[in-house]
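Ticket #4471: structure export looks truncated?
Reporter: QA, pipeline team
Priority: medium

Steps to reproduce: submit the single chain below to the structure queue and open the exported record.
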Amino acid sequence: MTGRVSIYTDLSPDAQTTAQEAVKRIDAIRGRMVEDVIQIGRELSAVKAKLGHGHFGPWLKESFDWTERTAQNFMAVAERFGSNAKAVSHLPLTTVYALASPSTPDLVRDDVVKGIQTGKLAGVQEVKDRIAEGRKAFQREQEEERRIARRNPKASPAEVKEKLRKSREAAKARFEQDRLGRQAQFEARQNAVTAFVDGLTEEQRVQLYEMTEAHYISGGDIRAALGSIGWHHPKLRIAALEAGQ
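Actual output as written to the record:
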């Protein structure tokens, strides 16, 4: 970690040593923070299991001045990462709480942890973004599942799940079909523009460029410029008609 901090090169040897040693101690403490949260979460879970209904909240308030939400954060981290604290030990606690939260689906959590372990998610912001994206995707899928259930009130949960799977596959197929269609249209337009320009004389190319309010360059650059204008540009259609295309 210290190698990434360029400010060290501007420090005196004594200050550099002090700062680098502090980084080692802080890293060690920060790594233990998640382990401490896990231990606290285990203690809280054990007490909650012993106390009767309605007593846990008042006990938290009197003993620590905590809310039940605070306790839930600790207990969720203990449940999700009790056996794998190292995977998230470098993350800020707020991010660990978000990752462990029941509102983060298991599939999203597993994907994030895998990304961290493989190095694909190196930064804290990347982890936060992946959590947020995963939550939104999961919410959309839940909304679609509820919509299917409303439209099929007699369907069993298994049947709803199957309809959701088919709906998801159909949506992916439509997206891929649209993507291929857009790509084919783009390639057809580019090919038409290229064929049209290649058939022009040098004088016609100059005239065409003047009509499209561009500066005359040569061959390939003309095709690229016309491609950005688009085959259906009115001036390009007029030029094509005049050129007999």
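Status: closed, not a bug. The export was complete when the record was re-opened. Leaving a note from the reviewer for reference: Confidence is low (pLDDT under 50) at residues 1-5, 213-221, 227-234, 237-245.
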